[in-house]
Amino acid sequence: MLSQFQAVGQGLFTQGLVSAQGGNLSVKLGEHLVITHRGSPLGSIQEGDLVQTGITKNSRATPLASTELEVHRCIYKNTSALAVVHAHPPYAVALSFTEEEIVPCDVEGRTLLPRVPILGADIEVKLEELADEIARLIGEHKVILIRGHGSFAVSQLLEEAYYYTVVLERSCRLRYLLKALDVDPGASPI
Amino acid sequence: MLSQFQAVGQGLFTQGLVSAQGGNLSVKLGEHLVITHRGSPLGSIQEGDLVQTGITKNSRATPLASTELEVHRCIYKNTSALAVVHAHPPYAVALSFTEEEIVPCDVEGRTLLPRVPILGADIEVKLEELADEIARLIGEHKVILIRGHGSFAVSQLLEEAYYYTVVLERSCRLRYLLKALDVDPGASPI
Amino acid sequence: MLSQFQAVGQGLFTQGLVSAQGGNLSVKLGEHLVITHRGSPLGSIQEGDLVQTGITKNSRATPLASTELEVHRCIYKNTSALAVVHAHPPYAVALSFTEEEIVPCDVEGRTLLPRVPILGADIEVKLEELADEIARLIGEHKVILIRGHGSFAVSQLLEEAYYYTVVLERSCRLRYLLKALDVDPGASPI
Amino acid sequence: MLSQFQAVGQGLFTQGLVSAQGGNLSVKLGEHLVITHRGSPLGSIQEGDLVQTGITKNSRATPLASTELEVHRCIYKNTSALAVVHAHPPYAVALSFTEEEIVPCDVEGRTLLPRVPILGADIEVKLEELADEIARLIGEHKVILIRGHGSFAVSQLLEEAYYYTVVLERSCRLRYLLKALDVDPGASPI
User: Fold this and answer.
1) Which of A40, A93, A147 to mutate to test the interface with C (most CBs of C within 10 A)?
2) Where are the alpha helices (DSSP H) in chain C?
3) How far apart are the first and last CA of chain D?
4) What residues of B are in contact with residue D180 (Cβ under 8 Å)?
5) How far is residue B11's CA from residue D19's CA, in Å, rounded to a whole number?
6) How does DSSP classify residue D37?
7) CA–CA distance, A18 with A90 (Å, rounded to integer)
């Protein structure tokens, strides 16, 4: 499992989808989850950067888990997701200030993510307060964006949730590039 | 042959020309072709990511091949190409929404790719429906773009089709950067 | 300690936050500091690229130290910092020409760096003349920007000063992307 | 010497300053020069990618040398340069269409390259026809730009000519970013 976290973490970092310590990853294991350590550098995850805790119950290790543990737990409680990727993709975050939702206009994005909702009207709102809404929408859309913050993506496999994150960012960069030229790609939700 | 696929796949991925699972590569071997597996990550191709099948006949492995197998087959049937690279270069895809064709205005681009046609008026059109047109135009131009989707490049060598793809993207980025400043580089087809 | 310098230097270089020889790093060791060599390539630091000298007293090695040694010394004399990272982050430097201070509008940036002052009205001013002002402001803000030049970040750990630098650049890129669309993210200092 | 070419070639490629096969490097050795092979991939130079030939006399290997051999020769004949780096830096090439010369407005750029001339009014002009003018100007300025094509940089060391190329591109990116916001950084030649 470590190598899976390492490959996904490194992929996110080298593509600029997380900063040196931002973002977090988890997978569900029955009643437990394994999640990255608070402030762990996703670009170079070591064994000590993974923390196991319960989905509903705390363990001794719980305080070491990512500060966004409660959002991961809420997703696992309310959806069939087995893996969660939280990242800070830069073009997606930029568009979170200008769009109501993301509608990819490239074929890869449209096929995988026809519509990505954007949550959080105010960047002062705490992420935990949005946990229920995140869990509700992500069950349906696989990926959601939090305004001014970043993305959550879910799947049965960590690699796939990572893939959705990459595709979201690429679709958002395309929309951004067109927007900067005042070009409307003319795509509407499928 | 594996190392050739790996070098090209990694080059495409690290330069951002494909996402974590997008894009596909193939080479022709007599009546057969070797093509990347459906959804294989080009940035880290393993032996199991290569699939051999016939150019006209199916094999047991055919269902594992990239979803764009039929376009590759159509190119090999109708041109002298021995290698095909399909990628999703971001600036090229952005310009596919604003241009009728790509005319590079840098020396490297102009020398290799004087004119790159853009196909597909509507991003809802299935790629397979465009296969004949792709094969017809790519024989003449070496590289073509599909609107809102990506590029196909052909050559006798996989490395060269990869090189054309890189040059296309760099020429498109240059045109984009100038377009964003409202500068017309003034180049017309040679 | 070498491996720490190497990891941070490589991180800065691969993310484009320093050029091939720009930028410099130091840590405090009691009355001494270890700093990168004049013109050393941060992307590939070797043992010979580290220079030890006094914070107040010169040693034989002093002339080999980074040209910005005096700024590092001034910071160590006047603050509780144990590590300093000086980089040339491109979007931050771009915004240094357009803003009076940097106010991140993304959650990661706002949490870590609510306000980043910008010093130096005139890019002809020598950095040493700004050393006292840099030391005064950096004690309070952890990161400061020098107009047309780059960033200084301090912390107890080199990795953390590096992290602040990365976050500054990402927040500046976000503000730049919105500014280029004429979008005001509406965030004000916390 | 091979490792020097490899380090510089890889640095240029990973920073996007050359494409998969563009650009070329050389060093002077008395009456000879060692130059990269025609079409060699700078990102992964092997021993067979280096070609030795005379500065004034051809050898058997001359036809294998980079197509820009004559420009390198002309520089060595007319200046004291011992190393030449030719690259295709994207922002520098973009600005070559909009500026008469590059005047860096960042401190690193201004210190090293106060003024970078741009040659070649018409991108149809053959590079060899510009060789004399390149040699004349590069002796004075260390780096010059060819409109719509790329940069030449010279120094006593290959690493330093590479460094100048990196700094040029970073200064050009900064000027581009400001130009796209309609901001005049107000810097004039020193």
Assistant:
1) A93
2) 2-14, 69-78, 90-95, 107-112, 131-141, 158-180
3) 36
4) 180-181
5) 10
6) B
7) 9
**Would the pLDDT of A189 be above 50?**
no
Q: How confident is the model at residue C189 (pLDDT cuts 50, 70, 90)?
A: very low
Does B186 reside within a domain? Answer: no
Domain interval for residue B7 = 2-180
Rounded Cα–Cα distance for residues D51 and C7 (Å): 35
Give the pLDDT of residue B120. 86
pLDDT of residue C76 exceeding 60, the answer is yes
Q: Hey, are the CB atoms on A170 and B20 less than 8 Å from each other?
A: no
Residues in chain D closer than 8 A to C21 (CB atoms): 163
Whether the Cβ atoms of residue A143 and residue A151 lie closer than 8 Å to each other: yes
- Reduced to 3 states (helix: H, G, I; strand: E, B; else coil), residue C53 is strand
Interface touch A88/C110, C-beta < 8 Å? no
* Residue B117's CATH number: 3.40.225.10
Tell me the Ramachandran region of residue C126: left when phi exceeds 0, alpha when psi lies from -120 to 50, beta otherwise: beta
Query: Is residue C190, in this structure, part of any structural domain at all?
Result: no
Q: Mutating which of C85, C107, C143, C168 best tests the A interface, going by the most A Cβ atoms within 10 A?
A: C107
Dihedral sign, Cα of residue D53, residue D57, residue D60, residue D61: positive
Residue of chain C whose alpha carbon sits nearest to that of A173? C177
Q: What is the pLDDT of residues C21-53, one digit of tens each?
A: 999 999 999 999 999 999 999 999 999 999 999
Q: Is C80 within the bounds of a domain?
A: yes
ipTM given for this complex: 0.94
Chain B residues near any Cβ of chain A (below 8 Å): 14, 16, 19-22, 43-44, 88, 90-91, 93-94, 97-98, 123, 127, 146, 148-150, 176, 179-180
pLDDT of residue D12: 98
* Per-residue pLDDT at A187 exceeds 60: no
Task: From chain D, pick out residues whose CB is under 8 angstroms from the CB of B187.
Answer: 123, 148
If phi > 0 it is left, if psi is from -120 to 50 it is alpha, else beta; for residue B66 that is beta
Cβ atoms of residues B137 and B113 within 8 Å: no
Tally the domains of chain B: 1
The model's pLDDT over D127-166, given as tens digits with 9 standing for 90+, comes to: 888 999 999 999 999 999 999 999 999 999 999 999 999 9
Q: Is residue A118 part of a domain?
A: yes
- The structure tokens listed for C177 are 């992307």
Q: Taking 80 as the threshold, does the pLDDT of residue B187 lie above it?
A: no
Kindly state the average pLDDT of the residues D162-181.
98
